[in-house]
Amino acid sequence: xxxxxxxxxxxxxxxxxxxxxxxxxxxxxxxxxxxxxxxxxxxxxxxxxxxxxxxxxxxxxxxxxxxxxxxxxxxxxxxxxxxxxxxxxxxxxxxxxxxxxxxxxxxxxxxxxxxxxxxxxxxxxxxxxxxxxxxxxxxxxxxxxxxxxxxxxxxxxxxxxxxxxxxxxxxxxxxxxxxxxxxxxxxxxxxxxxxxxxxxxxxxxxxxxxxxxxxxxxxxxxxxxxxxxxxxxxxxxxxxxxxxxxxxxxxxxxxxxxxxxxxxxxxxxxxxxxxxxxxxxxxxxxxxxxxxxxxxxxxxxxxxxxxxxxxxxxxxxxxxxxxxxxxxxxxxxxxxxxxxxxxxxxxxxxxxxxxxxxxxxxxxxxxxxxxxxxxxxxxxxxxxxxxxxxxxxxxxxxxxxxxxxxxxxxxxxxxxxx
Amino acid sequence: xxxxxxxxxxxxxxxxxxxxxxxxxxxxxxxxxxxxxxxxxxxxxxxxxxxxxxxxxxxxxxxxxxxxxxxxxxxxxxxxxxxxxxxxxxxxxxxxxxxxxxxxxxxxxxxxxxxxxxxxxxxxxxxxxxxxxxxxxxxxxxxxxxxxxxxxxxxxxxxxxxxxxxxxxxxxxxxxxxxxxxxxxxxxxxxxxxxxxxxxxxxxxxxxxxxxxxxxxxxxxxxxxxxxxxxxxxxxxxxxxxxxxxxxxxxxxxxxxxxxxxxxxxxxxxxxxxxxxxxxxxxxxxxxxxxxxxxxxxxxxxxxxxxxxxxxx
Lengths: 418, 313
Known about the structure:
The complex is a heterodimer of chains A (418) and B (313). Chain A is mainly α and 418 residues long. Chain A is built from 16 helices and six strands. Chain A folds into two domains: 234 residues, no CATH class; 144 residues, abc type-2 transporter like fold. The longest helix of chain A is centred in the middle third of the chain and has 35 residues. In chain B, helix 3 packs parallel to helix 5. The interface between A and B is medium-sized, with 24 and 29 residues.
């Protein structure tokens, strides 16, 4: 029997590697998806090497706007551009760049910005309006954090400007005879306190650190692109369903199944011989995609190759089972095309391949559990970005194998070789 | 006939209440080409599918080489070669790859496999195209390779289901010559076709089937001889064909006369005498002929006589 299964496997592998459409679907399509998303997200979110580029038009007559922009750059993740072609950026040039989509947004500091910030108690200067010029099509997820950060920077600058004046006012009221040297010393201390720096020049007593939950060992936090690599990988793995369904349809249409049915083969042997090559292609596909993501984009592959293998094997089993199920119900080329596209896109979407499930509504996250993509994705993310190991992914692999069993049993129940 | 290698007894198969095969019985001997002749939908392919163990009959018995093929299909399968009506090959693979695959499925490997593949490639004249993908082959070449794939494992019985559909005359003759050679080598061949010329030329015995039933079974020569000098198909007004007119009874040159679907079928012993008698009778009774067809004795006329239908209807 083994020899006959090997003959079937060899034949389907020969057919697969001679079919450019199949190769494109399995290897090129998901990889192109990765590359395109990589390029697209680079523009929107940036990555380690490419901060978000912010245009700044400084009409301010004082130095407060420059101070805010300096703080923004020190924060990291932002590159502030105040000049273009050697000339200070003006409102019209900034508007053109934003309108052309070359930059996501521009910040315009008005002429009275410093004056407004430095107004002492009792003074009432005209309010300074800082404009944030945004392409209306820019995603709110990009714009809102940036506006929030800018707001924080401006308020910090405002406090730094206002506090010494307030100190002066308090001294005039409490001890007007205080000398100028003493006044300057008190103003420095109060400015440092406002800036969040202790008197001895040490670091702020409050800081923010990114940490992983217990059991997740992350040496370097992945960027949003890296977090999505497992999603594209899972998306690609399940496209094998289309190839399986088309291959089975071809065998029915050509009459080769009919010929094999009168050969000394069991039907189980025939089905095993049909699925094993696609299962192997799936493993190769996962290895190629993750390997390429690591080699080309520097994506970390975690510390557990065995864990990756376990998840890949379980995901490949689920996709093979789904292939049998689709083949059982779709009997024509058109049905296969329609059913696989609809099913795979829906399962990928609710499974979190395109949008992280964590930001989905609760009910949709629950629905997502019915998608094998969700379990495969979590399994890969456990290894790739959560730093977990083979034991940690066993429950996910178990769920995928359960999907495989259900798909396969229902598929075989309804399967027709002719 | 020598001891049969295949025996079918009272085979029956129905699909959703429609009886596709209705009590067929026959036997095939080694070294014999046995033809199943009938129009499309007559039940030929269903019969072949049951005999080749593709699916079991609803009732009846199939014995192949002494083994009950319905109960033990896996025991008889290694000795069966099946050439389906479809071109059951992998178009993206080469001729050699296709044959090697089917050989491996039947347990061949290594040197023995290579030798068998080379041998059948030679037999069907495709050795020089062995590496080319099948999708680049002409219809005739693909048919020949389809035949080769049924032979690569050296079967004892070969089932050929309409193997010449869509084939050019040259390839058809090639297939005929080869099928005869296989018969001479002792292979039992079961051949279905709706081309009566093919069956007449090729088969040692013919079973004529229609609507799943066996209508006649003999050598082509014997079946044709039974037609006398041919068949006259005569169109007459309904009044002349009415039973009380007893028109046919007055035609003594006809061995047998039947009326079916408004036509009078006359099996004639002497064509000239029958025609003269027919025209004289029409004149005597003042009956106008509406049509007249003379069919030379052939399997076509045998089938027409038996069913009132032409084979290609």
